[in-house]
Automatic annotation (TrEMBL):
Domain of life: Bacteria
Residue span, N-acetyltransferase domain: 44-210
GO molecular-function terms, A-Z: acyltransferase activity, transferring groups other than amino-acyl groups
Name by which UniProt lists this protein: GNAT family protein
InterPro entries: Acyl_CoA_acyltransferase, GNAT_dom, N-acetyltransferase
Source organism (scientific name): Nannocystis pusilla
Residues annotated as transmembrane: none
One Pfam family cited in the UniProt record for this chain: Acetyltransf_3
Length: 214
């Protein structure tokens, strides 16, 4: 299942929700949280990517099942390490920027995916999401467990007004997941993106804070 992520790349999504809670670090200023959160669920921990994650990130991000819909595909472990280093220079919840969180197994801390959040516009009221799950960890409900936890964090802790995601409609599993977690299909743009040598459709799903847990 593949979801758009930073740089208009798409990422696999799988799973259903379990319990969740978030621990945040705040730094003063009008932009709110700038230190990445630690978001805990029954089976997952979402936190900052580290240099030690480079090999695992490279392994699943270069997997054929993942690269089909991804714009960023590391050619070597060093590329993954450079991506992590660049990510570490950014504050979390900074307007007009993407931030990539690690998705880890809560019991072992092993990296099993990554979750991108795009903080949109000068007013900071909207965000775009996209993430990738290692194929070895798919079809266990972990994708939706992660996405519901992040949605809850964006709407509850950060008070975002709207969160959206964009997906290739050929990716039926992701389409089903987005509907399952309560996101609405807002648009279907026909052949609107030139993607890897062909014109492809783009479907946008979204959710408002007022609709979250309504």
């Amino acid at each position: 299942m593949l979801f758009r992520a930073p740089l208009r790349r798409r990422s696999p999504l799988f799973g259903i929700c379990v319990g969740r809670r978030a621990r945040l670090a705040y730094i003063g200023g009008e932009h709110g949280v700038v230190v990445p959160p630690e978001i805990l669920t029954k089976r997952l921990r979402l936190d900052d990517l580290t240099a030690d994650d480079a090999h695992a990130l490279f392994t699943y991000r270069s997997h054929p099942e993942v690269t089909r819909f991804q714009g960023w595909c590391p050619a070597a472990v060093e590329d993954a390490g450079a991506f992590i280093a660049r990510n570490a220079t950014k504050p979390f919840n900074q307007h007009d920027s993407w931030y990539q969180l690690a998705i880890r197994a809560a019991d072992t801390g092993a990296l099993i995916g990554d979750f991108g959040v795009h903080f949109i516009g000068d007013d900071g009221q909207q965000a775009e999401i996209g993430f990738t799950i290692d194929p070895a960890s798919q079809r266990r409900g972990l994708g939706s467990e992660a996405v519901i936890a992040v949605l809850d964090h964006l709407f509850t802790a950060l008070q975002k007004h709207r969160v959206y995601a964009s997906v290739d409609p050929r990716n039926e599993a992701s389409m089903a997941l987005l509907k399952k977690v309560g996101m609405r299909q807002e648009a279907h743009f026909r052949e609107s993106l030139f993607w890897k040598g062909e014109w492809v459709d783009d479907v946008v799903f979204a959710l408002l804070r007022s609709e979250w847990r309504a």
